[in-house]
Amino acid sequence: MPDALHPDNLPATAFYLLAVVAIVASILVVTRRNPVAQAMNLILTLLSLAGIFALLQAHFVAAIQILVYAGAILVVFIFVIMLLNLSDEEIGPPRPSIAKGLAVLLVAAMIWGAAVRCADDVLAIPAATLDPGSYGTLASVGLLIYRDYLLAFELTSLFILIGIVGAVLLASRKVSGGGDK
Amino acid sequence: MIPLEHVILLSAVLFGIGTVGVLIRRNLIAIFMSIELMLNAGNLAFVGFARQYAGDGAHAVVLFIVVLAAVEAAVGFAIVVAMFRNRGTVNADEVNLMKG
Predict the structure, then answer these.
(1) What are the residue ranges spanned by the domains of chain B?
(2) Which of A63, A104, B37, B91 is deepest in the core (most CB within 10 A)?
(3) What ipTM did this prediction achieve?
């Protein structure tokens, strides 16, 4: 790509770089044995996806991706990894290579089939022109949440409440009758 | 201008990697991370299509998915911690209380 650094092509160049980072890091998430290494690679994947969101004009979503996802949710991951402090034998032996190979083949076939089926539909969508001043900004998305999706937004608070109650209930008591096998 | 088909292809590849992770890993924490990858692939598809249609309604949906991921992680890890305390393992294959 000789024109990769041309100002018009910079977003596309950045997209492909971030895409490669995201794919490599996500492969490492799936393959690394050490949970901390996995979590760090997951952060890298989430950050590169945040960059891609910003390139796709989703500025507010990109900010939320970094603040909530790479910030809060990954802290929960790290916290649990630290809390359990798993040894190698507690993590358990990896699956046999034949099972792994079969899973990769199966999923690759699934993705390939979906790509072949949907390629024409995706290519047929015309690119609409968007207003770069307001599209994807906090004002625009905030208006959507508090007006068009108000019911869903309010139900989200109930959802979080149920999640908190469930998590506290599950983590705080001993389950009787566990341990038999 | 980033072509939509490349965005969707990246989303599909990330989703596939996440699916493979759920299938090949036995460690429940690794399985949760793979599920996060799959959710993010969905987010990417939403944002890509939103850009193409020039409507940012999907951005609100992505925010709801992020909330869902946070709650899922909280409840899921509560289950993992409870399981680790009761069974001393995070291996998904060794959890068979429901098996008859």
Answers:
(1) 4-87
(2) B37
(3) 0.92
